[in-house]
Write the structure tokens for this entry.
Amino acid sequence: SVARRAVAEVAQHDKVARPVGFVPPPPPCPGKIRHFKI
Amino acid sequence: APAAPPAPLGCDDPESEAAAEVAVSYINGHSHHGYKFALNRIDNIRVLPQGPNHEIIFLELDLLETTCPILSPTPLANCTVRSFTDHAVEGDCDVKLQKVNGQLSVLASKCHSHADSAEDILQLCPDCPLLASWNDTEVLATVTESLSAYNGKSTGAYLKLLEIGRAKIQYHPAHVVFVEFAVAATNCSAEAANVEACHLLPDDQSNFGFCTATKVIRPSQDLEVNCQLYGHQPGVTYSPPGQATS
């Protein structure tokens, strides 16, 4: 439930602050998959 | 006012990738079995500042098995990651590094490896051979027969088995056993009569090698063996007379 609340807060804050055309930055982790995911 | 703490490192940041490269090099350098592993993804990174120019870095890495045996002199950058349908093996590693004055070094690492599920592979490729156990009867028989066939035809040193790296068995449309195994040269010639008395030569990369063999059991019997000896010796290919060449 802690995780769920944190996500909701970020989403709400993001919704208020986001200007038109804003692209949210990619999550810092995990990183990109170089080959394929098992 | 105190300076704001630096933004946390992202997994794809150049600093994270540099740390991961050092970690993967350390992991491969300290492994003596199986194959070299390549970085697939940085799962997580945490940095704990310790003081001026000193950090402790915790990395969680997702690695994939390559086709390069661990004893192979081929640099990791030139190694091919095994495909998904080759029944890929993944390595999950936790690595602790330190960065002192910009210099990275590994303090500790812990890895676990596991193969992809057979069900996932069969969904994509119903006839693909699947990884078999090292102590499977057919696998052991194929390795023994292959090495014996190679030694019986070779004019070089008598080779002894170091370890079986991989084995796969396919049942349809043909019954085929694929094996890969590491070998080492002994002080005997391949024609030696009493091979029990043969001893491995001192550790030197040129005394190691790697063999792949394919044994078709059904519909017809066939055996193909390829061995490559590292170091100064060129690659050697062997197939029993009257059977497939490569």
Q: What stands out?
A: Residues 137-153 of chain B form the longest helix (17 residues). Residues 233-246 of chain B have pLDDT under 50 and may be disordered. Chain B touches chain A at residues 8-13, 16, 38-45, 62, 64, 81, 84, 88, 90, 116 (CB under 8 Å).
